[in-house]
Design goal:
With 172 residues, this protein is mainly alpha-helical. It is built from seven helices and no strands. Helix 5 runs antiparallel to helix 6, helix 5 (89-108) runs parallel beside helix 7 (145-167) and helix 6 (117-141) runs antiparallel to helix 7.
């Protein structure tokens, strides 16, 4: 059946874009001059799409009134106040440190997963080590003293989890 499908296809048939345009040639669509000059009724009369919506020879915009500038100030304050705040880097470090500690829990508690022990420790060490580096890099990003202090606490916690993971890697 596969041979039948191959024989149905012409050998000289090419379906690439270049082959089709070479076969057809350059396609042009004739546009009448009357169609370009007619304004669209749905657009406002001062809209000029070719120049970005403004006329190049227009004068500078009029100065804003006190009420308009007051509204701009309020809008700017509201719009920037509603933007979501980024998550601190120490939060992600603590999250990864806790996750690494959870991976060490079966080994520390000596559950049935002891046969996979080196892999649990290596994964926990990798995760906690990365979280330590991430938390320490947060010292450059954080602007407040509390944020920097929490980055150090997060780095110390993750480093402790990494040390415990190395310590328990040979336990079986």
């Amino acid at each position: 059946m596969a041979e039948k499908k191959q024989t149905d296809k012409k050998n000289d048939e090419a379906l690439s874009f270049e082959a089709i345009t070479a076969e057809i040639g350059d396609v042009t669509i004739p546009v009448e001059a009357d169609e370009q000059n007619e304004p669209d009724d749905a657009l406002p009369p001062d809209f000029f799409p070719d120049t970005g919506g403004t006329v190049p020879d227009d004068a500078a915009p009029a100065a804003k009134t006190a009420e308009e500038s007051d509204m701009d100030r309020i809008n700017r304050r509201v719009l920037t106040g509603c933007s979501p705040e980024t998550r601190h880097m120490y939060v992600e470090g603590v999250f990864c440190g806790v996750l690494a500690a959870l991976f060490m829990a079966p080994i520390i508690l000596r559950t049935g997963f002891v046969q996979y022990q080196p892999w649990f420790s290596y994964f926990s060490f990798l995760l906690a080590g990365g979280a330590t580096i991430w938390s320490l890099s947060g010292l450059q990003v954080e602007t407040k003293v509390e944020g920097r202090r929490m980055c150090v606490v997060s780095a110390v916690f993750c480093a402790a989890v990494a040390v415990v993971a190395l310590w328990f890697r040979n336990v079986s």
